[in-house]
Amino acid sequence: MSESGAQAPPARDYAGPGALIPQEPAWRALPEREFSASFLALREHIYDWIEDYYDRDHLTRAGDWILVVAPDAPEHLVIAALLHDMERKVPGGPVLDMATVPWDDPTYNDAHTGRSAVIVPEWLREHGASEELAAAVAQPIREHEFGGSPEGDLMQAADSISFLETNDALVAGWATRGMCSVGKAREKLLWMGDRVRHPGGRKIALNYQRRSLESFENLVERRSEDDRR
Ligand SMILES: [Fe+2]
Ligand SMILES: [Fe+2]
User: Which residues have beta carbons under 5 A from ligand 2 (an ion)?
Assistant: First the structure.
């Protein structure tokens, strides 16, 4: 009960079976707490930068989910979540041969996370962020695939939940377009859920993993039926 006597609504259990509701948490929602004016202004610039990124929804949701898993997450961590993959927007980055190389390949993933951990702070400095903020995002971005520190584990959870929520059709498309086998594409969804180290984040990720696997199988099946016609 709050001081005014109003009962706060119960927090949604996103790990529960009834939690997979589209549009929840609300897109770009912020929890009720103080955010600095500089963070709020920077966040708008970030949404502009990611607007034409091929996987914009995944980045947007990573920023949303990190605040569900950790409503008190520091501002630099929300910014890191929103931008963690942005090296892929800058030509010249590492390329994973998805047909043959495992999803958890350390050489590819270290190159990917390490490159984002340089490009994102540079972009932040160019857009008026403090040196302190620009420096603070590097390590969590570096850890977003494998986790490691508490901040890295939160990043990994947000990355995984968001990916599993938004990218079932993208992954099914890799298989139906022949970029990798159906089994290899399925392994991506398995890895994204199974790898999560943060305990609360893991429960949510596994919930979304179940749904994304179901959707993946339906999309692949529908495509092979079309091919048989
Ligand atoms: Fe990534
Ligand atoms: Fe990601």
Answer: 85, 159
62 falls within a domain: yes
- Neighbour tally for 56: CB within 10 Å: 14
The domain total for the chain is 1
Within-domain flag for 88: yes
Token output for 54: 């091929």
- Measure 163 CA to ligand 1 centroid, in angstroms: 10
Where do we find the tokens 């977003």?
144
What tens digit of pLDDT does each residue of 137-153 get?
999 999 999 999 999 99
The predicted pLDDT at position 3 comes to: 46
Taking the centre of ligand 2 as the mean of its atom positions, its distance from the CA of residue 62, in whole angstroms, is 8
Looking up residue 24, the CATH number of its domain turns out to be 1.10.3210.10
Cα 83 to ligand 1 centre (Å): 10
Answer yes or no: is pLDDT of 1 > 60. Answer: no
Mean pLDDT of 111-117: 98
CA torsion through residues 99, 219, 167, 17, sign: negative
Please tell me the distance between residue 1's alpha carbon and the centre of ligand 1 in angstroms. Answer: 41
Which ligand neighbours the alpha carbon of 61 most closely?
2
